[in-house]
Amino acid sequence: MHPRLLLANLADHPLRQRLNIEFHARPPVPLEGAALVTHLVFQLDDDASAGEAEILAELCRSLPYTAIDNSETFLTLETPGFRMRWERHTEFSSYTFFRALAPGEALDPDASALDAVYCDWMQRIPGQLMVATQVELRPTVETSPDSVLAGLGANGRTMVAARIADQAAWVFSDFKIHNGLSRFLVLNESMTQRQTGRTVQRLVEIETYRMMALLGLPVAKETGRWLYRREQQLAELMDEIGRAASPEDERVALATLSALAAEVEHSVARTTFRFGASRAYEGMVMQRIEELRESRISGFPTFAEFMQRRLQPGMRTCEAIARRQDELSARVARNSQLLRTRVDIELQRQNQELLAQMNQRAKLQLLLQETVEGLSVVVLTYYGAQLVKLLAKASEGWHQVSSDLIAALSIPVIAVVVAWGTRRLRKRVAAGL
Predict the structure, then answer these.
(1) Please, which pLDDT band fits residue 2 given cuts at 50, 70 and 90?
(2) Nearest Cα to 113, choosing from 173, 200, 51, 210?
(3) Are residues 194 and 236 in the same domain?
(4) Do 164 and 90 contact (CB within 8 A), yes or no?
(5) Considering the domain boundaries, does residue 4 fall inside one?
(6) 273: containing domain
(7) What pLDDT band is residue 372 in, cutting at 50, 70 and 90?
(8) CA distance 285 to 314
(9) Based on the domain organization, do 197 and 72 belong to the same domain?
(10) How many separate domains does the chain show?
């Protein structure tokens, strides 16, 4: 049987096709000759994400286009004036515009690939602009690397420059924002179309992930100030616990410590995602730089060196704050447990004292009960003797013995019977309990 007919009878996993499409999504756009690539990144919330589909549909309605790639998370459109690529990510969406340049075409300093896009449409893109970067691609036959290097030496700016793709191209950037855009200049010496597309894609991703990674730094600085105050509070609280003179003081300290633990856990929950995302973005930045396969140009730092000096200190700050936060959480939990143990021991001691007092009261009650029982025997004996005396008086015609004598003789017998009956009743009650 033909394999296709055989597979047609098998049940597909509902995500099989979707996962395979995602695996092949976002291939680099092949580039040849001179071109401008403008890359915009918008950070989104849930409300902004809902409006993206309408914005893209509006662009499609306003221009003749050809859809090259299309799915829920990416779209590539070819129009007469430019090519646009849209991608949806977890925290942001990116819009990349490609515009081909004529050989030797001179550019205005403010020129970009956005010139052919409607301004009013650009204004309605949802979200907040996080990254705006531009890559100018030129062949070395048009722009000489030596002329660029000579100009860089004269302006005195801190520039990053390297040979990339096994020395098949040159790339220059200062990672600063000029007229709203950070900029890269790529001089292609011998890269193929797909190599050029991959290189441009890596450069815009380096800029995107660099900025997204740095989102964790303000959070780390704010959390660091908060952590310092809470660490001081914990130290003062432990001193107060050491000076606690009563169980009430310990219970108040435990309540304060529990409130501090709740604050720390809330801070951990609030910052865990941001710090984790920053670590992931930093890893992707360094991976993209490694994929550039850069080599040094004398007198200029490479991309890896620049990121190690400028990006990684901020990332180490985020890691240090996350670690301090986890350590504070562990210290608060440990001290809370120690204080709870101390309070529990004090409660057990109080319970033991209470049980001892109850034991003493029970003994006193038992003595009192035995005393009452003795008095009860006397009282019952007295009334029993009186009854015997009355009976003896009533029957004086039948015998010659004095009723007082009969009553006196009956007292020991009545006392023994009453004592025996009382003790037996007490034993039966104790056995029933």
Answers:
(1) low
(2) 200
(3) no
(4) no
(5) no
(6) 216-353
(7) low
(8) 14
(9) yes
(10) 3
